[in-house]
Q: What sequence folds into this?
């Protein structure tokens, strides 16, 4: 099985981004195509190098496919109710089989379990396994075991356990087998250290039951009781699957470098924890009643940002790591030829003022972690807002992490206001001390400045940056954070201006890439979160029929198992960007809560003062 050969350039079979489902164990996740191929899996955790990277290259960069050997007449799939267990049913002339894919909640090792069950007739099947460590670059040494195989390279080891007969073909492993009605053939792939003994054999049926119980118990804890229950549940489960259980950190997506425009250069690594995105996720989970996740996230956050406030980053690793070096995997051709394939993210070095607001607002809302006193949330909050009083007048790179010149982004200033406003409320409520008078002065200065310099009377809208004539979808959040009441004419005007000028093919653009120099040359799809933000705004300003119609249209973009990517290319009618994307699902749930009457903006103290 270790025979050497040249890698081919045979392209992947052409799966669209929306052709994938996700399975995961809350420490890593795999993407499974409709054809039964796992084309992306990083092991042992989200940020580890991939051992299946065909998603960003060719079959020779690693994949694991189980499917009928002959022609497939029809395919349908679904998540088993209230779980992250994917069931793909293949129909052939000879019969019907169900492929069950899942990752059991992790104990010592991480496993991918695949079970083929005969539903009708007798179906000839084929398994094709190509393991490539280091994002498809390293061919492992493969040896046979009595009940499978073992693949080793460096410290990495993957073990396959199955009763099916295996044979090596070139640098891959094949198996042909037949499944009759009522029969099951199981395959378990396990990650471990090459310096340890091969892990014990699992009972596939037992861990299937355990996995189903785990997810059903978790989904059953949701307190959401409004309409749109199914997409809300699926979104919440997706956010749970993007949470790294050992630390409580929440990643933005499980993939890197899925392009924002096919063939373009806007390809980023999202397998990290953005303070902004994790704060959004935390608030959504809190709304749905997931207090345990909120407590664990709070611990992660305090550990991550502990230290000098001027050293707070926008991005951290899953355990709070600060070093995130961006580099290019030049041996990977990219998804549909979209290069470069980036590992790491240079946005870690950017100054993004708005994250202070997200963090302080989240700390204000989340429950105390009473059993973890290593870092004082009150002290950290005070240090952050004291530092913010010194730096809020500076330009920044903003929420969209532009790679052009820093600007005085309106949204960034509003979020600085939010940080101060929520800190003041926290200290007034708990009498925590702090330089509250100084905070009030700075909060009110920001509010006055934003209303003067960030609002354009001719456009009747808040604009992207001070003095600009350009609109920006981030301004849809101004009312949502309580900076002004939703019925304020400036909030209504902003919503309507963005609807009129930033909508393209029915979707909200982040900004006009043709008019703004963001340091990148290519165009992009429509960020789905921005369209969900408009839905929430339309609902809250009283245009409920328009909000519902737009929300229903956005829900129709979900793939057959309820997942969303970062963006949508309306011209090509396909998903683009990293997948599944936390921010898209966060905004979906937030809109559903607002439309169900279960959430409304918390007014800021300055708003009360102006009234």
A:
């Amino acid at each position: 099985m270790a025979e050497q050969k040249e890698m081919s350039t045979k392209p992947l079979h052409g799966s669209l981004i929306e052709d994938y489902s996700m399975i995961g164990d809350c420490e890593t996740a795999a993407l499974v195509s409709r054809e039964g191929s796992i084309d992306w899996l990083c092991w042992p955790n989200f940020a580890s190098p991939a051992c299946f990277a065909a998603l960003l290259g060719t079959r020779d960069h690693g994949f694991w496919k189980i499917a009928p050997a002959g022609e497939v007449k029809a395919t349908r799939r679904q998540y088993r109710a209230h779980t992250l267990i994917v069931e793909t049913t293949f129909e052939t002339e000879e019969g019907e089989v169900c492929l069950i894919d899942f990752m059991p909640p992790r104990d010592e090792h991480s496993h991918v379990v695949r079970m083929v069950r005969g539903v009708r007739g007798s179906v000839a099947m084929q398994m094709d396994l190509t393991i490539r460590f280091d994002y498809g670059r390293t061919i492992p040494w493969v040896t046979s075991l009595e009940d499978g195989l073992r693949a080793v390279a460096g410290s990495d080891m993957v073990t396959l356990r199955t009763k099916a007969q295996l044979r090596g073909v070139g640098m891959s492993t094949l198996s042909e087998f037949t499944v009759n009605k009522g029969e099951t053939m199981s395959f378990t792939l396990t990650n471990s250290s090459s310096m340890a003994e091969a892990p014990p054999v699992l009972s596939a049926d037992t861990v299937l039951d355990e996995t189903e119980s785990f997810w059903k118990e978790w989904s059953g804890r949701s307190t959401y009781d409004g309409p749109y229950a199914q997409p809300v549940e699926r979104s919440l489960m997706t956010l749970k699957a993007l949470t790294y259980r050992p630390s409580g950190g929440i990643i933005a997506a499980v993939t890197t470098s899925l392009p924002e425009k096919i063939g373009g250069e806007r390809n980023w690594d999202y397998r990290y924890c953005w303070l902004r995105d994790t704060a959004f996720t935390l608030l959504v989970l809190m709304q749905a009643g997931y207090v345990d996740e909120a407590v664990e996230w709070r611990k992660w956050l305090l550990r991550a940002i502990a230290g000098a406030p001027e050293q707070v980053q926008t991005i951290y690793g899953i355990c709070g790591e600060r070093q995130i070096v961006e580099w290019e995997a030049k041996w990977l051709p990219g998804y549909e030829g979209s290069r470069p394939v980036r590992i790491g993210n240079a946005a870690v070095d950017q100054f993004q003022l708005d994250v202070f607001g997200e963090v302080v607002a989240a700390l204000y809302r989340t429950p105390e972690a009473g059993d973890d006193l290593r870092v004082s949330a009150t002290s950290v909050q005070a240090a952050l807002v004291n530092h913010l009083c010194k730096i809020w007048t500076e330009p920044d790179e903003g929420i969209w992490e532009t790679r052009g010149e820093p600007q005085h982004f309106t949204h960034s200033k509003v979020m600085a206001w939010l940080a101060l406003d929520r800190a003041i409320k926290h200290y007034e409520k708990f009498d925590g001390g702090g330089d509250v008078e100084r905070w009030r002065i700075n909060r009110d200065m920001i509010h006055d400045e934003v209303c003067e310099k960030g609002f354009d009377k001719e456009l009747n809208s808040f604009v992207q940056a001070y003095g600009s004539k350009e609109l920006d979808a981030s301004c849809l959040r101004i009312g949502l954070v309580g900076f002004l009441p939703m019925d304020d004419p400036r909030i209504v005007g902003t919503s309507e201006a963005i609807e009129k000028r930033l909508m393209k093919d029915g979707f909200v653009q982040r900004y006009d890439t043709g008019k703004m120099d963001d340091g990148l040359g290519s165009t992009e799809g429509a960020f789905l979160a921005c369209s969900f933000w408009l839905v929430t705004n339309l609902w809250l300003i009283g245009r409920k029929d328009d909000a519902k119609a737009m929300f229903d249209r956005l829900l129709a973009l979900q793939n057959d198992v309820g997942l969303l990517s970062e963006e949508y290319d309306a011209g090509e009618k396909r998903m683009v960007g990293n997948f599944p994307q936390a921010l898209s699902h966060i905004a979906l749930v937030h809109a559903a809560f607002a439309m169900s009457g279960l959430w409304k903006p918390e007014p800021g103290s300055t708003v009360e003062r102006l009234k």
